[in-house]
Amino acid sequence: MCADEGRGSSSLTTRELQQNWRAVKQRERPVRLLFEIPSARITERDLSKYVVYQVVVMRSGSFDSRRESVERRYSDFFRFHHQLLEEFNEELEEVVLPRKHLTGNFSPEIIAERRLALQDYLAKLYAVRCVRYSRYFAKFFTEQEQRRAHSLLRAGQFKLALELLQSILEIQEKLAPWQNSTLLVPTLCAMAVCYRDLEEPEQAFSAAHRALPPVRRYGLKNYRAPLLDLLVDLGYQLGLPVAQLQEELTVQRDAERGLVSCSLKELVVREFL
User: Fold this and answer.
1) Which of 60, 59, 54 is nearest to 40 (CA)?
2) pLDDT tens, 212-245?
3) Above 70 in pLDDT, residue 110?
4) 33-45 and 48-59 as β-strands: parallel, antiparallel, unpaired?
5) What does the DSSP 8-state code read for residue 178?
6) DSSP-derived secondary structure letter, 32
7) For residue 68, which of 77, 59, 80, 78 has the smallest C-alpha distance?
8) HSE (side-chain half, CA atoms, 13 Å) at 212
9) Which of 98, 119, 127, 234 is the most exposed place for a label (fewest CB within 10 A)?
10) SS3 of residue 69 by DSSP
11) Residue 19 CB neighbour total at 10 angstroms
12) Beta strands in 46-138 (DSSP E)
């Protein structure tokens, strides 16, 4: 009886150890980007006809609850590829952009074939270290959306701009392990401006406060004083302690004496023109 109980206890402990080991291995699994092009659609605009591909960006190695996607044409892939070739020609000798067909581009078979080929192309690009760390890689997935979001912001359509900026931020966060921390700064600053104009000071303060560390670390002088100014103003409005931020702002303003200053909103509206 006692021997059986001992074996049962030992067996249970072994199972627990195995479960713990699997959990540790799951946590330590390297995070990678995965790309999927699940669909494509034919679009006609201004007497032109083209195919738009839905590109989904995911992260492996952890549970990725949000599948963010962007839409890109073949011409976007073409420009992207040639930008990369200008800088990484040798490294991309074995990475070939799927060719463009002279006829039949809109047949379901050709579209399905190219959709899978472009998906494979992105995976091969990501496998090249210098490419996934390059600024072009992040720009391909976010620049078009940034331009649209900032255009909406300039038009005073803050809710629509914010929805797009939140989606951009999700993609940038997926790209973040392979990019400079400054990647998120323009997005966070634009979000802070939108929240401020939508009279949501807590969210505005949170977005601006998150942007501040990379601005400090990488010496983004054009952002620092406008960002601090907004944080101090919002902090007073929310009843938060802002003495240190105020002191930092004073030092920054003294260092910029004689230079033309602007608000964070004035700075943001001039971006992605």
Assistant:
1) 54
2) 999 999 999 999 999 999 999 999 999 999 999 9
3) yes
4) antiparallel
5) G
6) -
7) 59
8) 19
9) 127
10) strand
11) 10
12) 48-59, 68-73
**147, 73, 95, 168 alpha-carbon torsion, rounded to 10°:** 30
* DSSP letter, residue 101: P
Residue 47 CA: distances (Å) to CA of 11, 43, 44, 50, 140: 71, 10, 7, 10, 26
Per the CB < 8 A criterion, the answer to whether 53 and 115 are in contact is: yes
| Amino acid sitting at position 272 | F
Strand order in the sheet with 33-45: 33-45, 48-59, 68-73
Number of H helices, E strands in the chain: 11, 3
Task: Please list, in sequence order, all residues whose beta carbon lies within 8 angstroms of the beta carbon of residue 96, skipping any fewer than 6 positions away.
Answer: 121
Report yes or no: 221 and 248 within 8 Å, Cβ to Cβ.
no
Q: Which two tokens stand for residue 242?
A: 């802002």
CB contact at 8 A, 97 and 81: yes
Among the listed residues 104, 138, 118, the one whose alpha carbon sits nearest the alpha carbon of residue 72? 118
Q: 63: pLDDT confidence band, cut at 50, 70 and 90?
A: low
Report the SS3 class of residue 215: helix
Is the dihedral angle over the CA atoms 106, 110, 115, 120 positive or is it negative?
A: negative
pTM of the model: 0.86
Q: How far apart are CA 61 and CA 220, in angstroms?
A: 32
Phi, psi of 77 (to 5 degrees): -60, -40
Q: Which of 261, 228, 257 has the alpha carbon at shortest distance from 243?
A: 228
